[in-house]
Amino acid sequence: MTAHDRKIAQTHDDILEEIADALDIPPSKFEEAKSRYESIGDWLGRDESTLSSYDPAISP
């Protein structure tokens, strides 16, 4: 790998790192989403639900 190839690879790594950072959500938002998904799963799995016999599992 030449110095030029390493520079291009580093640039691509930097770009991918920036994209990942932009897409990442804070832990508090993850926990909020997780809680909401679990609530939906609980609601679908309640005794009164026509879906409860399927034991629905909802996950973020």
Can you offer a commentary on this structure?
The protein has 60 residues and is an all-alpha fold. It has one domain. The chain has helices at residues 3-23, 27-45. It is elongated, with a radius of gyration of 21 Å. The model has no long low-confidence stretch (mean pLDDT 86).
For the largest beta-sheet, the strand count, sense and barrel status come to: none
* Continuous helix count: 2
- Beta-strand content bin: under 5%
Radius of gyration: 21 Å
SSE series = HH
Relative helix content = 55-70%
How many separate domains? 1
How would you classify the quaternary structure?
single chain
Write the layout of secondary structure elements.
Blueprint (H helix, E strand, L loop, with lengths): L2 H21 L3 H19 L15
Summarize the structure.
The protein is mainly α and 60 residues long. The chain is 67% helix and 0% strand.
